[in-house]
Amino acid sequence: MPSLRLGNIAPDFEAETTQGPVKFHEWIGDSWAVLFSHPGDFTPVCTTELAEVARRAPDFAKRNVKVIGISANGLEDHHKWAKDIEEWGGRFAPTTVGFPIIADADRRISTLYDMLDEQDATNRDAKGLPFTIRTVFIIDPKKTIRLLLAYPASTGRNFDEIIRVIDSLQIGDKYRVTTPVNWNKGDDVIVHPSVSTEEAKTLFPEHTVHKPYLRTTPLKVE
Question: Choosing from 46, 50, 116, 165, which is the catalytic residue?
Fold first, then answer.
């Protein structure tokens, strides 16, 4: 299949997870979703990542975001690995892996979502299957892919950045704004180009015109 792009509908699938069978679109429901892949269980970088996602569960929940991991191993390994993840994350506070992890030992879903590592044609595991990379998909309630990030297997993700993008997308959908470089929630935003001069006076009475095409405004959101 062709590579997935922003704006595509996220492919639906059925899979076994650590929380039982999942029909992906049905599981997302009316929420946002983060699907994030891992090269393998019992690996150091992946362990730190899943512990961080478990720790940040309240941050995702208050944004109406469901998270689901996927790793190229079976359920038995996933359940065993969860104990290591919780031990690592629990060094400072109790940590529970409360989100599902998809079993994808045959790379079926990794292939469907093009999560494979093709940097080296010989990059295969002991079974001859391709390694997966660290891919992130942010998917909205309409099942549309809104963000794609692909990291090499050697580099852990920054989940502050992933949450920052979710905030940007959600306020953009709601308020007709975009966000500037290095934006964080609470910073000024950019009035969307589709908002006319007259509309801007009503919608954003405190906005500042820097250039005809660049208007910023404070935005109070919870």
Answer: 46
Is the same domain home to 82 and 131? yes
Query: Is residue 54 annotated as part of the catalytic site, yes or no?
Result: no
Establish if 28 belongs to a structural domain. yes
Question: Does the predicted TM-score (pTM) go above 0.85?
Answer: yes
pLDDT per residue, tens digit, the chain (222 aa), is: 458 999 999 999 999 999 999 999 999 999 999 999 988 899 899 999 999 999 999 999 999 999 999 998 999 999 999 999 999 999 988 899 999 999 998 889 988 998 887 654 455 555 666 667 789 999 999 999 999 999 887 899 999 999 999 999 999 999 999 999 999 999 999 999 999 999 999 999 999 999 999 999 999 776
Burial profile 42-81: b = 16 or more Cβ within 10 angstroms, e = fewer: eeeebbebbbbbbbebebbeeeebbbbbbbbbeeebbeeb
The CATH number of residue 137's host domain is 3.40.30.10
